[in-house]
Structures are given as structure tokens and as C-alpha cells.
Amino acid sequence: MPGPLIESLARQGITRRTFLKYCATLASMMALPPSAGRAMAEAMAAARRPSVIWLPFQECTGCTESITRSHSPTIEGMIFDMISLDYQETLMAAAGHQAEAARLDAMQDNAGKYLLIVDGSVPLGLDGAYSCIGGRSNVEMLKEAAQGAAAIVAVGTCAAFGGIPKANPNPTGAVPVSDIVKDRPIVNIPGCPPIPVVMTGVLAHYLTFGSLPELDDKGRPKAFFGETIHDRCYRRPFYDRGKFAKTFDDEGARNGWCLFELGCKGPVTHNACATAKWNGGTSWPVESGHGCLGCSEPDFWDAGGFYKALSVPADPLRIAGVAAAAGAAVGVGLSFANRAKKGAAKKAHQPVTLADLEKS
Amino acid sequence: MNELQFLTWVRGPGLDLAVGLFLLGMAWRLFEIYSLGRKQDLAAPRHAAGASGLHTVFRRSMPPPGMLKRSPVSYLGGYIFHIGLVVVVFGFAPHILLIRNLTGLSWPGLPSQFVDLAAVVTMAAMVVVLVDRINKPVKRFLSTFEDWFTWMVTFLPVLTGWMAVQHLLLPYTTMLALHILSVEVLLVVLPFTKLLHVFTLFGSRWFNGKANAHKGVPV
Amino acid sequence: MSASLEKVTQTLKEVIDAPIASYFESCVHCGLCAEACLFYTETGDPKYTPIHKVEPLRRVYEQEYTLLGRLKKMVGLSRPITDEELDQWQELVYDSCTLCGRCSLICPVGNDITYMIRKFREGMAVSGHVPDGIRGATQRTVEIGGPMGLKWPAVANVLKKAEESTGLTIPVDQAGADYLVLLSSMEIVNYPEYIEALAKIFHKAGISFTLASDAFEATNAGIQIGASDIARVIVSRIVDAAERLKVKYVLSPECGHAYTAIRWEGPNLIGRPYQFEVVHVLEFLDGLRQKGALKMKDKFAEPLILHDPCQIVRRGGVLQAPEALIREVAENYIPVADQQKWNWCCGGGGGASAIHTDEAEALRAKAFGVKKRQIEAAGVKTMVTFCANCRIVMEEAIDHYEMDTKLLGLTELLAEHLED
Questions:
Q1: Domain holding C245: CATH number?
Q2: Strand, coil or helix: what is A296?
Q3: Which residue in chain B has the smallest CA separation from C316?
Q4: Which residue of A has its CA nearest to C225?
Q5: Helix, strand, coil: what percent of chain C each, to 5?
Q6: Residue A357 to residue C3, Cβ atoms within 8 A
């Protein structure tokens, strides 16, 4: 699709004004100064379409679905028009050797400049045999593609943190991208799936400033992952007042009270759901009455159960009963020993006489 | 180990271990202490109103006449931090949920702003009693490593809990995990330090009350 | 371990029981017991903190009866008690503790520290870590019959004088009497008026009584020094006499620790309940008062305060009678701030008054400060008490401070104002 982005947007009925507004919103969401919105719009409108290679590994395509298949065309979807998506198995028309050839061509033509997007985790078990494309393991492909990449975006929790494939007992030996690639800048956009606007925000930032946004210690853009769901949750006042839904259909649930007791992981989950929402701002999990699963955090699948409140034991107490019994046994044993000792002392008692009162 | 794994460990195996060691320690120590037995008092008892072991268990919670004035920091500081701990431990909704999960008992929680205030007041009172322990000749004279250690072990859960809620210093997840870990340390050391007074104080007051009640003296 | 330390440990192993274990485990080192102890409040020296006085006992408990303590002992992490240490503790356990029991009322976790000191003394006594004064009193009580070395002929002499001055007969060894009257040496020697007063009251009330020539002495240095075996020998004299004479009641004299010995420790020493009742003289008098049999002809007019002896009131349970009686006889009775079970000790109970080293005497004088302030605050010149030991200790202190306070015995005061 030739020509700058603004033209292709116009063709699809999106005015310059709408696009500017969108960029301003994006800028503010990323906590950039207001002027950045205009700069972003200008940069993106005129951008040369960078080459993007999207590698899918152990994944469910949910991330692609999230970003591309909204119920109606969105600006997020449109923005994909501004990149030259040279390889994306799910979306591309080519297949088999043709597709692989396209990937290799893109890598060669744009060596050192292309953006590598990865979704899915990388299995290392059995020399990577758990997931192969065209007979080549994911890990091999990743290493190869990473070499010429300007930056890597790990989309979705699987690519970012290993996700569900890595969940206990991790039969495929799945690892995140960051475990394999150490010498390229990596942005993690976790979420199961990730929020579309986060993806476009990162792309917009990259196109505008030629760099990746500021990241937190887990490689996530701070602008979107800087705060917890709990802190931005509209049900927070209920938490503070101690008003909790106890079941999914009690009065509290109907009144929209806090879902903490139903296992909401909002307090330990960093993501922008509470502010960005989903499906064009329609709703988000907590608003729909279900607690946060914590999907944008590493190992969320193994964090003690989705329906267990954070303050309750993650696992049932197994040794407590045995320990109490053992303690009682030790105690009873000591009781007998002590009583025997005391008894012996009493038995050995010599009547105290006046002579004893004299210092010996 | 990332912080969520850390949190999951302290909520899972860590808690199991800590509760296990606590129960083991408590059973062991209570048997050890109370199995030593005592002699029956053969003197003819004298009965007096208000004199019994049970009376003393309750009465000893009030300062004896004149003592409040004599040692205000000990009493006021002590009351504030003990009551504060009770409010924080048993009034904070997530704690109640834990107790419900472990025992099935439950009651309404207090507003979190109130619990937050109680935590701050508790910490302030604990710092005051610590300073008092350093300053007062008698307290300093009696103090051993155990006194400083148990202060720290009691203070840390309050501090980390409060910091977690306030998002201070470390991310909430890490702080929450540290908070739970600090409580687990408290649970493990409790049976083996003076913190055991939480339980033995009832026995001690009862013994004292009963022995004196035998003579008709409400103590 | 030396033979004497062996004895200490062996004895302490015998006396350590569940209450002692519970008390040690409950102590949080708050130091409030110091505020209850007149040796601390009057000197400000932290070593007089009551719980510190039983520190060697705590270590024996820990090393002998707790698993962790035994392990620590095995690997050499705990310090065993030493003779030098016990020497050092002798002052804390005897000179500066009167077993007054105030700390036991104040301890917020409920520790009966007095009980612990009493038990610790058992270990101190068997190894000879005792003050010469109390040892001497104990020896005299066992060998001669009383702590002051008083023998029956001397007592008989005093009784004879009392008979002469009152014109009443004082029965001796009379089987079947209602009351067996006990005395304390101090009363016999220093306050014979007590005997006269009592004779008058008995005759007036028409109640039969007797003295026993082989059991006139109520005091028991054995419980003060902390040697139960010796205390048993001493208390058995009274029990034997009372049961031989088949009396219904044994009347304990005003003396404080004598009351504790005969009323509370006695049955536990001999290992069975008595076949008679022990009544403190004030309980007896208050009984008469309640029946209207104690009528006063006039009242003592001067303002006065009351000193409640620890062993009779706080540790003995005679709580209400003293005040009821003093109100009967005194026109100007002024209650003090810390009275009844909250009273402050005279400074010489628990055997301390028998210690006559310079240090012990100086300490006692200092400890009297709290009583001195009470007297001065009330602005009185008269203090009434009902324990010969308290009385003599306080008289010494009053001399020491050159105060013009007069001390009176309550029974004696009552007798003086009794209707003829």
C-alpha cells in the first residue's frame, strides 16, 4: 500500500482531525507532553513504512486476534497499515516456502533496521522440537531474526514472560524471548491478550522518536504498566470501605462492590485495563463482574488460583496438622522427661538441716 | 524468582511451613511449660468476692492504682500498640479473609483508612516504647538481645504491611510478599521467645489470681 | 559442679513448677515490677528490679526444663550458675526483698514474682547463701524455740506479770479450750501489753483460751530463710500442740510472717489440712465487733494513719478487718493513698529485719522513705500497725530519721479503749 499513512487513513474515512485527536490521546496515555501528540501525528502521517517481521511461536493467536480483529475497524487496525508487515503467518496470503522466502528477503533487505515482533513462547525442550516452522525450531528462527533486528517487541504474556506454555509443569521447556535474546532492545507488552492501544502506542513511539518508550524493570512500557489495576480500579472505594462481593451473584456483586475476596489479582497486576478498557472502551474484566486474573504478570497462571483472594493461602496447609501433632508428641515426650527429672530430684531429696544453711 | 513467584511462595509453601512450625512450637512449648504441674494448696481456702484466677486474667489488663502516673509511657505506649495491633491484625479485611480461610471464623472489617491510621499510630507507639526501653535505666538493664529482636520481629510486619498498602519504596507485590514473610518469621519465633506471653499471660494471670484467691485476695 | 551448686540445682529442680515456668515465659522485661518495689523506688538502682532477683532461677529453669535450654547447655551456649553469682544474689534475694508481694500485684502479665523468690530461697538456703542474721534466727528457733532465743520460763514470767497487772488468769496447756493463743518473741519481749490486751478481751467475751508451753512461738524463720524442711519442724510444734489440746482455733498473733507460716504455708508443709482453724487476731476481734461484743469506752483522738503489714493483708487476705477496727477506736483515722492490699512494706519483712550488716541497715533506712512520705503527707504523729516486726523496723527508722512519730499496735490500742 504505497504513500504515507495519512492518505491510506483518509481513504478509509478517517479524517486528519480524528487522527490528530487519536495521537493526542495516545500521547497522553503514554504520559508524554501535549506537544508530543502533534509530533507523533506528523511523524506517523509522513512515516516511511518500516519493515516488520512478526514471528509466531508457541501461541494461541489470541494476541493477533486482539490487535487485528476488533468488532469494527479501529485506528489500531489502521496503524498496521503504516508498517510493512512483511511476514505474519496468520495474516499473510503467502504460505509454505513462499512465506519463508518473504521472511528471508525482508531480513536481508532491511538488515539492522527491521522491527521484530514475537508472540508466543519459545520451547527449548527436545532441542526446540515442540514448535517448528518449515522444519526449523522457534529458537533457531528467533536467534536468526534477532540478529538483524533494530528492536524486538514481545507481544503477549507468552513472548514476554513465557505465559501459559511456561506454566507449571512446563512440558515444552518454554521460555520468554528475553531468555534467548540478550543483545537487542526488547519491549515486553504482556497481557493475555495485550491491550491493542499499548501495541500501537509503542509502535507510534518508535516511529515518532525512533526509540522505544521508557520501560519498567520487567521491560514493560511504564506509561501503560506503571500502576496496578487496583490503584486505578473504579471499585477501589468499596475496597477501602470494606465492602466486598462474597459470591458472584450476591448483593455485593450486584452492587458492584470490590471483587478482592473473589480472587481479584488487581493489587499485584500492572496493566492499563482500568483506564484503557477493552473493545473500543466498552468494558473490562472487573467492570463486567470478574476479578482480574493478573494476566500481564509473569507466572500469573501459577499464582495460587484465580478465585483465591490474595491474602489467603495459595495452597492448602498440608503440614500444619502433622506439625501440630508432632509438636504435641515432642511436648508430651518432654513432659515425661521433665516429670521424671523432677521426680528424681524429689526422690534424691535429703532433709535440709541447720548444717546445710552454713556455707560449705 | 520474580516477585509474583515470591508472593506465591510466601502465600503457599512459606505459609504452610510457618504455620506448621508455629503449631509445632506452640504444642511443644505449652506442654513443656504446663506439664510441670503444681502442688495442690492444702490450706483451708478463704473466699472473697472478685478473687479468682479468671478475675485476675481480666483485672490485670487495667493499670493498678497510681501506676499509670508512675510509668505513663509503659502503660499508654503499651496499650496503644497492643490495641493498635489488634485493630490492624483483626480489623483489616484481607486479614479477616485469611482468618476465615484458615478457621472459618469471620466478622466485618474496618474501613481501610481507619486501619491505616491505626497502623501509623501503632508504629509510632512502638517507636516510643523502644526509645523508652533505651532511655529508662530499668528497661535497659533488663534488656537482652531477645528484647530488641522481638521488637523488630513485631514491628516489621506492621511496617511492611503499611508500606505495601501505601506503595512505598518497593512495588506492592514485593512489599506484600515481604509483609507475609515477616509475619511468617513472627509466627516461627513466637513460641520460642518472650512473644509467647501472648498465650502464657493467661496462664500466668490465672495461676497468680488463683493462688491469691485461695487466700481471699483479689489480685 | 561443686557440691553446694549440685544441691542448689537439685533443690530448684524440685521447686520449679508450672506457674514458675509460665511466669518466666511470660515476662516481657517491661520493668514495671521495679516501680512496685520500694527498694527500687527509694534507691533508683535497676538491680533491685524484682524479676532480676530471680535471674539465676530462670537460668536453672531454662537449662533443666526446656529443650532449647538443654541443647544450649549441651553446646555450651548457656551460662551455668556459679557460687560467686549466688553470693552476689544473696543481697538481692534477702536484703532487698521482703516478700512484700507488691510486684506480684502489679506485673501486667500476671507473674507472682514473690512466689518465685520464695521458691528461689529454697535453693539459696540449702547451699548456705543466706545472711548470717536470718541463719542465726533460724538456728535459735530450731534449737531454742524462738528467733530471739526465748525459752518458756521467760515467757511464763511475762505471763505472770500480765496476770498480775490485769488480775486475770492466763491458762496454759489447758486441753479443750476454744483458742490456742500464739505469740511472737518480739511481742513477748518488746510489747507484752499485747498479751494483757488479749487476756482482757477473751475474758470479756467469755471465750476460753490457752497457751501451750511447748508451742508459744508463732514465728517461723524457716519460711523466711526458705528452708521448707526446717519450717515444717517449726510449724509442727504448733500443729501437734493444737491437735493434742484439741482446740477449735489457733489464734495467730499480729506478727505478719507468723500468720503466713501458720495459716497458709503450714498445711502445705505438713502435707495435710489441719484439724483446727487458724484465725488472725484481727479477724477474731472483728468477729467480736460484728457481734457487738467489742464496745469502746472512748476513742483515740489524735489523727492517725494505718500501716497494713504485707503478710497479713496483701499476702494474708485479712483485708477488711483492720480498717473496720481502727474506725471503731480512732476518732481521726486518715486513710492513706496506697492502703490495704496496695500498701508499702515497712522495709524489713521476709526476714530482712534480722540482717544486721551495715549495708542492709542502710538500705532498710532508705527503703523507709516511702513510709516517711506517707506519714508526712498525712501530717500525723501516730501510726498504727498490727505486726510486731513492722513496728520494730519502723521504730528503728523513725529513730534514724529523728521523727516524732509514735507507733501503736492495733490490738493494744483496742484494749486500751475497751469498755471495762
A1: 3.40.50.1860
A2: coil
A3: B215
A4: A357
A5: 55, 10, 35
A6: no
pLDDT per position as a tens digit, A197-211: 888 888 878 877 778
To the nearest whole percent, how much of chain B has pLDDT over 90?
86
Interface mutation vs chain B, best among C13, C28, C272, most B CBs within 10 Å: C28
pLDDT over threshold 50, residue C339: yes
CB A217 within 8 A of CB A226: no
Instruction: Give the pLDDT of residue A81.
Output: 66
Is C16 in contact with A342 (Cβ distance < 8 A)?
yes
| Domain encompassing residue A198 | 49-225
Considering C130, C146, C162, which residue would you say is the last residue of a domain?
A: C130
In contact, C283 and C71? CB cutoff 8 Å: no
As a whole number of angstroms, the distance between CA A305 and CA B146 comes to: 38
> Residue C247: which domain range?
135-288
Q: Which residue has the cell 476460753?
A: C208
- Phi, psi (5° rounding) for residue C300? -75, 125
ipTM, interface predicted TM-score of the complex: 0.96
More confident residue, B171 or C270: C270
Beta bridge partners of C180: C210, C250
Q: Say whether pLDDT at A152 is over 70.
A: yes
The verdict on a CB contact (< 8 Å) between B167 and A231 is yes
Buried b (16+ CB within 10 A) or exposed e, A28-53: ebbebeeebbeebbebbbebebbbbb
Q: Which residues of C touch A357 (CB under 8 A)?
A: 125-126, 128, 130, 135, 138-139, 225, 227, 230
Count of C-beta atoms within a 10 Å radius of residue C36: 25
Residue A70 has pLDDT above 60, yes or no: no
Are residues C310 and C237 part of one domain? no
Instruction: Assign C131 to helix, strand or coil.
Output: coil
* A348 at C interface, C-beta within 8 A: yes
Task: Decide if pLDDT at A91 tops 90.
Answer: no
Nearest to A179 by CA among A146, A150, A226: A146
Contact B194 C27 (CB under 8 A): yes
C248 to chain B, minimum CA–CA distance in Å? Answer: 14
Residues of C in contact with B149 (CB under 8 A): none
With contact defined as beta carbons under 8 Å apart, do C258 and C182 qualify? yes
Chain B interface includes A294 (CB < 8 A): yes
pLDDT recorded at residue A318: 87
The answer to whether residues A92 and A150 belong to one domain is yes
Whether A28 maps to a domain, the answer reads no
- The beta-strand segments (E) located in C217-362 are 249-252, 277-280, 300-307, 330-333
Assign A80 a pLDDT band (cuts: 50, 70, 90).
Answer: low
Q: Which subunits count as partners of chain C given 3+ CB pairs below 8 Å?
A: A, B
C237 phi/psi in degrees, rounded to 5: -55, -45
Q: How far is C188 from chain B (nearest CA, A)?
A: 27
- Indicate the residue among C288, C317, C341 that finishes a domain: C288
**pLDDT higher for C307 or C192?**
C307
Which range (A335-344, B110-119, C22-31, C185-194) has the least confidence?
Answer: C185-194
Please name the residue that has the C-alpha cell 548444717. A355
Same domain, C144 and C122: no
Give the one of C3, C14, C130 whose C-beta lies nearest to A342's C-beta. Answer: C14
- Range(s) of the domain holding residue B57: 49-213
- A352 to C126: CB separation less than 8 angstroms, yes or no: yes
CATH code of the domain containing A288:
4.10.480.10
Distance from C-alpha of A74 to C-alpha of A77, rounded to nearest angstrom: 5
Residues C90, C45, single domain; the answer is: yes
Residues from B contacting A (CB-CB < 8 Å) are 2, 4-5, 7-8, 11-13, 15-17, 19-21, 23-32, 35-37, 93-95, 97-98, 101-102, 108-113, 167, 172-173, 176
